[in-house]
Protein: Methyltransferase type 12
Amino acid sequence: MIKIAGTTGLITLFKAFAAQALGLALTATLAWMSPALFHGAWRLALVQGVAAALWSNALRQPYWWLPIHLLFLPTAIAMLTLQLPSWLYLLTVLLLALVFWGTVKGDVPLFLSSNAVADAVAAIVDRENANGFADLGAGIGSVAVPLAQHPALKVDAWERAPLPWLITAWRCRTLPNAAAKRASLWDCNLAHYGVVFAFLSPAVMAELGEKVRREMRPGGLFISSSFPIPDWEPEKIVDVEDRRRTKLFCYRLCRPE
Ligand SMILES: C[S@@+](CC[C@H](N)C(=O)[O-])C[C@H]1O[C@@H](n2cnc3c(N)ncnc32)[C@H](O)[C@@H]1O
Structure:
């Protein structure tokens, strides 16, 4: 589960190393059996990438690990060939760590909603007449910042990764009704908001659904981009005309009978 650091983080790291090592072992075995097919570092690196990605899948790592495994060794070889200065590696690792802060521990990585999603969410919020809006895992503010153009709406953008948070905070600097909160979405009290938005991952939706049920006020609206809450009936599903054909799953919190 996403918010558990410690052991889960170690298991994730162990699986990542295991997928790479098993990919390497498989490639070495294939190269030993058929040297003619596998000569040249590039060919070996590509086969190792595919093998590592397949092992990652077999080890049930989240899907965003696949491109990482596919590209890890080919990228390492490309970097060595280019003979780049060593400080550039340090800078790259630092930047990646600041953007993908909790991903190794299981947090959802950064990927961005389109402008069309922000427009669709703004239209929903207008209809709701809500005065408080939260984006859980706000990234660089792709949804929170356009929403905060409505001065009557108080917008909180919750983001844990330092660099995306800094970008959101900078984008919110002239918007008195918007706040970028550098904290875990699991520490956010949803009772403060009439509408809550999240674009996360299937892996967290059941747990997030529990949090929504526990904390949101009756009559409030929870919008999940792309990923439904398992076993919940959405009040409606909005189809967004963007490249990903995003679906917004809208869940109404029941009023007591
Ligand atoms: C898929 S991106 C969505 C970004 C933005 N909401 C959008 O729609 O463009 C998910 C974001 O959630 C953030 N995130 C993941 N787990 C988090 C947590 N526990 N607390 C706060 N932010 C988190 C990630 O750093 C990432 O920026």
